[in-house]
Amino acid sequence: MSRRSWIQATFSKRECVKFLPASRDHHRCYPVCQVCQSLVRCCCGRLIAEHVGPYSGLLGHGPGPDEEWSVLQHTSVSPTDAFGSLDFQGSTKRTSHAKYVRLSCDTPAELLLQLMLREWHMEIPKLVISVHGGTENFNLSPRVCQAFSTGLIIAAESTGAWILTDGINTGVSKYVGDAVKVYGSHDLRKRNVFGITPWGIIENNTDLIGRDVLRHYQALGNPLSKRASLNGMHSHFLLVDDGTMGKSGCQIDLRKRLERHIHFQKIHPRLPQHVPLVCVVVEGGPAILSVVLEYVRRSSPVPVLVFEGTGRAADLLALIHKQTAVESKLDSDIKEDVLLRIQETFVVDRQEASELLSILMECMEYRELITIYDSESEDLQEADVAILTTSLRGTRASPEGQLNITLAWDRADVAKDNILVYGQQWQVGSLEQTMLDALVMDRVSFVKLLIENGMTMRRFLTISRLEQLYNTQKGSDHFLRHIIEDAKQTRLPAVYRISLIDIGMVIEYLIGGAYRSTYTRKSFRAMYSRIHNPAKEGVKETSSPFSKARKAAPTSETPPSRSHFHRTAQPCRHQEGAIAPQDVKSTLSPEFLCTFNDLFVWAVLKHRQEMAMFLWQHGEQAMARAVVACKLYRAMAVEARESNMGDSMAEELKKNSLSRVRTAGCGSLGSGFPRE
Questions:
Q1: Name one GO cellular component term (predicted).
Q2: Is the pTM for the entire model greater than 0.90?
Q3: Which of 424, 455, 486 is the C-terminal boundary of a domain?
Q4: Which of 455, 477, 493 marks a domain boundary?
């Protein structure tokens, strides 16, 4: 099914089909009354002539006196007629396109996420930042505005987050758009700002009608109109249709369901944690207080970050949060001052102010989920860190779980300052899975952080884990399988598992000459065979073929293993039978210990340049490792070009080899490289 037909078959629009006058006066008119057709509006906001269906224009056979308009009873559903792309005109000098679709207010959240991932080719977010606040224009001080703008964009782009707003070109949504314009990346793939907007309030929404079309859109609205225009810096719009015109509110429930559905998705295929969700409050009217209360009272509570100094609802939340820091109740004199302030802030009477104060006090029952950010404070952390730490607090995850979330975000700074802190107790080996995930996910900053916090690579890196790293698929990892096929001169089955012996053959194939890899030596093959077939050596089988290698931690009596490159520096003189017979019989003291050198070769062969540069700085014999890396990169570049893998890959591999030459200062060795 094509993209166009799938969207039409999946999403619907709603139109009012029964005229129900909003004014219930005693005017008794005939079916074609010109006054009613021109002046009296239906509860949906339309005139008689703007209705469709059998009740169009039949006011004389209208509703009973007690009938109330409802979406389910008075609207009809039909395939959506508005979706495609918007080209915003005059809003910015930067290219500003956005995807949009008109859809019914009761659309299942599962279909919305499918639209985003399948049709709009997005990736699951690692964080959802739901921004709430004032819908009318308001002023922010330059310092508060900068703190909010930079914090929001850095938090979103550094973690791969989605930002959700109302999508209109006024109020807090406009501030979000301005933040994207000033501080956001020019890479459209990183601009994931969703506007969830009522279809009926959009200025000139009929101009958007069309199936899979490109529509030019003017973001500047008519100042005399009560309708709203869309903000030009949002990347995607869900235009929520409940059959009404000029009325807001239908988007609220759909937004809640979408946020909840995304929240229960896995943050990364390797990690069990779910996508965190955080609410950010900037300014806002009385309705925002109820929004905050709804978030913190959910069965899966959502943390709230309030930007103090932005005005109205945000400042009232900050005030009550501080006043109830010691005691949960307000003194009578303070309560009276707060009531007066609520009346002045929202321009309401005393009874309504008292009701709003009750909502505020209910919010404070969940005060641990509410964080106040004062951008005027000199001692406070950066706004992006505040957003992320608030998100972590709301997950209520264990330290290991929080560490996994920061790993998915690739924010080692947050992990260092908030999780891997002095006094935090970690079980022995509890960080080893995190290290494995960091290597697989190519998180160099986390590998560095874990090593700084005492991770012992000789304990962590077993043969089992090294082979697991070689068998993970990421990006262009299929290139390694192709080289193995060339080295073995055979076609690998789809489920083939790469072994270290295969890697040894690849190294010898790429470097050539008299080079001999440790992984192909008889001593390594014998030890490798014993690990895979312990029963043949008279040892009981365990649940895992690599369990012996895991249990074989190095002891003080065990002599340090020669490095991978030191062994291969003298291939002709090395004695194959250098292993003592008693060592051959024992699987508890393996002759081979994986080191930084083995991990470094993995990073080179898996085409992970940044990780390889980091690992090159650890271990011994940096010059020898740099020379080997140069040769491997050059040979892989030739292989990529000859195998039609693309000129870009070949050029990148060649560039990596040159960086190794410069790093090691071995430019004079260029004549020894494989010729292209």
A1: apical plasma membrane
A2: no
A3: 455
A4: 455
